Amino acid sequence: MPAGVAVHRRDPPAAEVTGGPGPPGTGTPPRTPSWRVALSLFTVIPAGVGGDLDEGAAARAVFWLPVIGAGLGLAGGAAMVFVAAGQGSPERQLLGAALAMMLLALATGGLHLDGLADTADGLGSRRPADQALEIMRRSDAGPLGVATLVLVLLVQVCALASLPRGWAGAAGLVLAAVTSRVAVVLATGSPSARPSGFGALVAGRTSAAAVARNSPASATCSTTSSASTASKRRPSWVRSSAAAQR
Do the beta carbons of residue 80 and residue 173 sit within 8 Å? Predict the structure, then answer.
């Protein structure tokens, strides 16, 4: 599955987006850097990423979310500082905050806003879990989703406008962008709500235990332990012969 499609609606099952081995004799293709995969998935910035997205690549990309948040926050903060430069006024502060939020929405393709509206529609339906998930997968936004978007954006713009002028206020936006994406990384350590989509690819793969299991140090320890076990299981005459040759 091409990176950048997995996080949108109507995703195929996770088993279908996991790339299989290539044709015999083609060799293993070079691994795309995780930060480029993350840019392709979570922003509209062209990163030159193609091919299939497997579980390992998706999990590694998720860890770059806070870094991407810092970059987006800096861009939005710069817009706030530029608009509010010179003679400060509440109107300039409000305009700078609105432009910063617009820049973040454009840079991410409205991905977080789309998810917010879907969540509001699903939870507000007061239906059983399976029906709520089906409502969240629909391409349209219901009245509750639209109202939630408007209210949340108003709160965000007003909160940004109330921050101090200059880079102190911009730092507040950067902090918010980073911490919100750290929360996403922590949330992906939990089970997925459904067996398809991007969430199914990363569910349970970003927890501390999963990272420890998949780390190079863990693989080295596992290999050493297997070799030691195999050595102990050799017949006694093989061990005696090896000892005599030393």
Answer: yes
